[in-house]
Amino acid sequence: MIVTLAPEQRKFYFRNGYLVLEDLVPKSTLGQVRLAVEELAKKMPGYQVENAFRALPIVGKMVQKGKFGPLLFQLLEKKPIRIKSDLFLQENEPFPELEDEECGLFFPLQGDNLGQAIFYRQTPPELYKEQRGCYLLFVFTTKHLNEERHPRVFR
Questions:
Q1: What pairing do the DSSP bridges indicate for beta strands 134-141 and 102-108?
Q2: How many structural domains does the chain have?
Q3: Among the listed ranges 3-7, 23-27, 92-96, which one has the minimum average pLDDT value?
Q4: Does residue 117 lie in a domain region?
Q5: CATH number, domain with residue 30
């Protein structure tokens, strides 16, 4: 797994506000995540699935310490880094805008972009705002939040 970004990748992120990485998480894992989240959504009709990292072990494993932390530190340049929330977005649901001390990381869960990991700050790239599909979005922050509800992913 990638743990160090090239200087050009960091420059691209700070200049453009996003960075796309390929194969950060295996496509097979993302397929399993999609099925698990869709099952959870069926149990809660009418509600948006959020904070699945607490309810679904497969999503929780994606954010455990050591996976995304080193990459997030290179983009946020501050620690500790905690998971603030996650959202399962379907069809044309809007991506949230983020605060300065936050970084979004989303994974397309279907289509041609399956296998990509897209980090963004403040607003998601225009390319993804209009695309139909489903996404798993994590929001990470350097703000001090309750440790139990928002575990650290990088110290």
A1: antiparallel
A2: 1
A3: 92-96
A4: yes
A5: 3.10.129.150
Q: How far is CA 152 from CA 64, 65, 71, 155, in A?
A: 8, 7, 14, 7
Task: For 101-150, write each residue's pLDDT tens digit.
Answer: 999 999 999 888 888 999 999 887 776 655 667 889 999 999 998 888 88
User: What mean pLDDT is reported for the chain?
Assistant: 87
Q: 1 lies in a domain?
A: no
